[in-house]
Amino acid sequence: MPEFRRIPVIRSLIVALALSSGARAQDPAPPASPPLDRAELGVRYWLSTGENKHAHNAQGAVPSLGNPTSVLLYENLDAHVLEIFGRQVFARDWFVKGMLGIGRINTGSFDDEDFNAGQVKFSDTTSSVSGGSLAYGVLDIGHHWRLKQGTVNLGVFAGYSQWNEEVEASGATDHLGFIGGDIDRSVKVINNSLTWKALRFGFAGQFVFGRARLGVDVAPDPLCAVPQRGQPPAAHLAGRSRPGAEHRAGG
After folding, report:
1. pLDDT tens digit sequence for 123-173
2. Are the beta carbons of 117 and 64 closer than 8 angstroms?
3. What is the CB neighbour count within 10 angstroms for residue 66?
4. Are 16 and 41 in contact (CB under 8 A)?
5. Which residues of 10-22 are buried (b: 16+ CB within 10 A; e: fewer)?
6. How far apart are the first and last CA of the chain?
7. H/E element holding 7?
8. Strand partners, 224
9. pTM (2 d.p.)
10. Are strands 228-229 and 223-225 parallel, antiparallel or unpaired?
11. Which fold is adopted by the domain 3-236?
């Protein structure tokens, strides 16, 4: 049974531009509606770094293989991302919010380790991630409760999210000689595509501090599907087929 683990990306907000309907910076008078009732539309740019790690066990089909049989790690995946986000309150205490983003993965590395029974490593290669892309979308609907005359809103929401990621790796350093030597970095050795589809349930909070506003969302993804396809260099470059060389993972 394949095991897949996604390590969350670390996001650093670089530039943010938010537009609120009915906002007038030059007017010191209190707005006609509570500050958190206004429609929001904005653009964000952020940098991220993250990694994907998954493993599979083929020992049931070939007892001489280890458990896990193969461990694949994409790490230090540095990306630039542009995001559009929005939020709208309706029927006074309900809201809908969402975001769309697209980005480019610039650098990273891909490590592929394979094991025989007893976890004796028989293959170990490292490749350079030469490029990639990512795209994602989130749509949530929720209900909030107003506190402190509308300057604090606490709520719950449910929604759907999808994350698409594709990376290409080039070259290979053959640490154990299994694939017959190193491969030049000019040679593409793998293309890996990943799609996360998830139902979201979470909590939302918005707080006003003078002219500043803080929004916090906490949303674990308890239900998700992760179809993935990709073949590591040690499988196809060595001209041999091993169980699980092409992966489909689900969670």
Report:
1. 999 999 989 999 999 999 999 998 887 788 899 999 999 999 999 999 999
2. yes
3. 21
4. no
5. eeeeeeeeeebee
6. 10
7. strand 3-20
8. 198
9. 0.72
10. unpaired
11. Lipocalin (2.40.128)
